[in-house]
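User: Sequence in, structure out. Go.
Assistant: Echoing your sequence, followed by the C-alpha cells.
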Amino acid sequence: MVHRRSVVAVLAILSLAVLTVRAEDFWVKKEWKQWSKDECNKILQDSPWTKKWAKSSVNVSAALPGNSGASSEGAGGERAPEVHYIVQFRSSLPVREAVVRLQQIQGYSKLTDEEKKAFDAKAESYFNNSYDDVILVHVDYGSNVQTFERDMAVYWQSIREDSVPVDFYLINERGDRVSPARFVSPKNGSYAFDLIFPRLKDKEPVIRDSDKQFSIQFVNPAVGNQNSASLDPSIAVFGRERVLVQFRVDKMIFHGKPSF
C-alpha cells in the first residue's frame, strides 16, 4: 500500500512537471499571432525575459489593538505595503511580439481596414528595429501605496535623460559592470523608464551566448516619510536599497538562440 502511494505521488509530480513545461513553452509551440491575452501577459510579466523584484513590509501598527481603518494600515490603507519593479528585455523578439499581440487582442478587430494596414505597418517596423549594437531594458515600477508610488515617480522622473543613474549596471558572468549608455524616463505620467546598454564592450559581447547568467542592478530610492518612521517604528516606509534582478541565458532561448 505504501509502495503504491509512493508511485502515485511520483507520477503526480512528473505530470505536474510536464504541464509546467508545456505552459512555459507556448512561445516555442505557437506562433505569436496565436498567443492569448494571458500568454502575452506571461511573457511581459513573468518569463525568462521579464522578472519582478518586490519588497514588502508588514505594518506594525496593523497588529496593535485599538487601531482601525487607514490608521491601522499603511499610508494607503495597506496592511502589507509593497514596492516593486518589473524588468523587461524589450530588445528581445518575444517581448516585442507579446507587446504587439496584446495590442491586437485589445482592439485590432474594431479597426477599419485602413487602420489595420497602418497598425500592421507600424508593427512590422517595430519588429524590424535593429538591436545589433544595443540592449533595451524597460522597467515598470509601482507600489500598492499611492504616496510611495508618487515618491518613486518623483525620483525616477527627476533624473535627466543626458545622465546615468547612480549604481545602475548590467553585470555579466565575468563580473563586468556595464553602465547604460542612455536613460529615458517619460514625464507623461507613466511609471516606467528605459535603459539602453551597449551590446559590445571592447569589441566583445557584453553577454555571450555561452554565458549562464547575468544581472541588472540599480537602487530603489527611499520612499515614505523617513522622519516620521524614525519617531514611530510602526509606520511603514522603505529605505534606499539595492535591487538585483538575475536572468538565465539558457532560459532566454527563442528560435534556437538567446534573445535579449
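User: And one key feature?
Assistant: Residues 25 and 124 are 24 Å apart (CA to CA).
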